[in-house]
Design a protein that fits this description.
With 281 residues, this protein is mostly helical. It folds into two domains: 103 residues, Cytochrome Bc1 Complex, Chain D, domain 2; 104 residues, Cytochrome Bc1 Complex, Chain D, domain 2, CATH 1.10.760. It has ten helices and no strands. Helix 3 crosses helix 6, helix 5 crosses helix 6 and helix 7 crosses helix 10. The radius of gyration is 29 Å and the shape is flat. About 12% of the residues have low confidence. Bound molecules: heme C (2 copies). The site of one heme C (HEC) has 30 residues, from helix 2, helix 3, helix 5 and helix 6. The site of one heme C has 29 residues, from helix 7, helix 9 and helix 10.
């Protein structure tokens, strides 16, 4: 009697394995493709009838342009020229006039704005005004860079503002930070009386700030008082430089000693404090 299964068992074990695996894989691939399709449909959908949603979509679309210059927070800070900052961050709105932004080189757009004065424009560029986001949406831009960029923009349209060259923000009164002593960096803070502030090699407070403090103090992370936030700094500044130096060197609450960078000398930490206080007065 002939075995009815004889024909079916002709397939080798390998052939059986392959068809089983393919049989399992096919529906899986189909599911993955469907998921991708759903995802791409959802992310492409924007309700352009809602102005708020549409504006967010515009901001989202230009974000890659505005963020072109992603910088390493640990790299030493180099102040860029107004033109560089403009091209990197501000041009996305201020060249085409997006969202009603005054256009570069356009006297009509700028006339009444220039009449407000250089300081007022800088203030609006730093804090934002209506559809203009604070610092053009890039909190990494320093006050000096903003001041230079505002001069670059306003001067293109007929103003004659003088941009700051030196490392001192226009609004910040000059402090005696460069005079900070470096003779005894290991001495206890209490020993560092203002009296022994002899001339010393200039300590780069701004550079120290950018590399060791900005991570929290530019963003307000962990509840850190933001550099430039006058309200947050006023009560602290009142406690006096020595108290601030001591908090920064030894740590205070969520503020780690020397910002977590034990390699910094006391003089460097103090210079960074001076820099932040200068930005925040
Ligand atoms: C997302 C778009 C956008 C970006 C990016 C942007 N701006 Fe603006 N900006 C605007 C708009 C919109 C206005 C007009 C706001 C108003 O007066 O209603 C404006 C106005 C201004 C003004 C005039 C403020 C006044 O008082 O009249 C200055 C100065 C300015 N921007 C500087 C900058 C600088 C500097 C940058 C880059 C660091 C920048 N902007 C990036 C949208 C933008
Ligand atoms: C990990 C986040 C972080 C880093 C990094 C950091 N800080 Fe702070 N800082 C804080 C926080 C949080 C506070 C608020 C502490 C409080 O008042 O309780 C603070 C407060 C301060 C104060 C005010 C102290 C006072 O007595 O009111 C000074 C000054 C200061 N930081 C300096 C610095 C300096 C200088 C650096 C860099 C060398 C630095 N910080 C790095 C988080 C940070």
């Amino acid at each position: 009697m002939a075995d009815p299964h004889a024909k079916m068992t002709k397939a080798t074990p390998q052939e059986v394995m392959v068809s089983v695996v393919l049989g399992l894989l096919a529906p899986l691939i189909a599911i993955v493709l469907i998921l991708f399709l759903i995802d791409s449909i959802q992310s492409g959908q924007v309700d352009v009838d809602d102005p708020e949603v549409a504006e967010k979509a515009v901001l989202k679309n230009i974000a890659p342009v505005a963020k072109l210059e992603a910088r390493d927070a640990n790299a030493p800070r180099v102040e860029r020229s107004g033109e560089e900052v403009f091209n990197a961050v501000c041009a996305s709105c201020h060249t085409p006039g997006a969202l009603g932004a005054p256009k570069l080189n356009n006297k009509g757009d700028w006339g009444s704005r220039i009449a407000q004065g250089y300081d007022k424009l800088i203030e609006h560029a730093i804090n934002g005004i209506r559809a203009m986001p604070p610092r053009g949406g890039d909190p990494d831009i320093s006050d000096i860079e903003i001041a230079r960029t505002v001069a670059y923009m306003a001067n293109s349209a007929g103003a004659n503002f003088k941009a700051p060259e030196a490392a001192a923000a226009p609004a910040a009164p000059a402090t005696d930070k460069a005079a900070d002593q470096a003779a005894a960096p290991a001495a206890a803070p209490t020993a560092d009386k203002p009296a022994d502030k002899a001339a010393a090699p200039a300590v780069d407070g701004k550079g120290v700030y950018a590399s060791s403090c900005a991570a929290c103090h530019a963003t307000g992370a962990a509840g850190a008082p933001k550099a430039g936030d006058k309200a947050a700094w006023a009560p602290r500044i009142k406690t006096g430089n020595d108290a601030l130096y001591a908090s920064a060197i030894k740590g205070k609450g969520a503020m780690p000693a020397k910002g977590g960078n034990a390699a910094l000398s006391d003089a460097e930490v103090k210079a960074a404090v001076d820099h932040m206080v200068g930005l925040s007065k």
